[in-house]
Amino acid sequence: MRDIVVTLVLLAPVFVSSFGCAKTDPPQLPDERSSGLVTVDIDKRDPDRLLRFYFGSYAEQLNSVLVDSDGRYRVDLEALGRSGFSLEDADADGNIDWDELSAFVVETYYQARRIPSTIDSLRTTIGDWHDENWFRISVAGVMTAATRDVYVRRSAILAALRNFESAGTLVYPDSTAFVAEHRGNDGVTEYTVMLKRHDGLWDVAAYGAEGLLADSTLSHPKSYTVPTQCLGCHYGKRLFEPEKSFPGTAPRGPGGERAVLFPTVPVAAGDVALLDEHRRRSDTVLGLYATLFVSSLRARSVDDLSDDELHVLQILDSREGR
After folding, report:
1. CA–CA distance, 5 with 307 (Å, rounded to integer)
2. Inter-axis angle of helices 154-167 and 289-298, nearest 10
3. Cut 0.90: pTM above it
């Protein structure tokens, strides 16, 4: 796992059947009498969101394994075990703490989510992200000293922009995929991936240079354990460069330049301010994908745009009072 990392977002319907929790018997809601019911106290900010992500990775119905009673969380270990994954109260104190939960997740997460085991099987499942139906941005940022080429289906961004029309926020459809190729002097060094789940959250994955699933990223200057250390950035509040300063110039960092390298198209300040997608952490995706996509549309001839593309520009123009 010390090689490559990938990030995925919107994909085809095949994604729905290929990823996710294994099928289980109809769930029985846990109650106070269950002998397998123990407290979960992970001592983290926003525990509800984190526990929804972690236990939602193993159960098709979250309330079949996790009970929330006025902010006090309990997990039914017996119900979780029936899904095929056994979480243990290692010190038998009646509480699952962060060390116990994180060790369990790191060990079992990929299997529970049925993440493709190789980059080739991922490509077979979601399609080739190098084809014309995918949108690419290239960025040098703080996650890694490498340049990242990040790909997402154009149809996924269009869907997120249509949601912006109705809800005022960018939300990507289920089965969306983002794939990031981290590039060094010798080509791709790792891949990072995000996959949109049916519960509205994102699965994450990393692949090494040889295309095998990795437990952590290889990214210099810091390696991140998947998935536990990925959520800190995506669920946090910190802003990152170059997105923080965009469309202005970001200051150089310890790893060198921090900048959006592609696409090199004029950017409308009104679009940046209206979408404000990095500052809003839109759908917990930290990039500028919709903003740059819109800029690339505006750089093309109107005659070359599809009806859907014209429609999203009309949405933004209306919001901006053009």
Report:
1. 35
2. 100
3. no
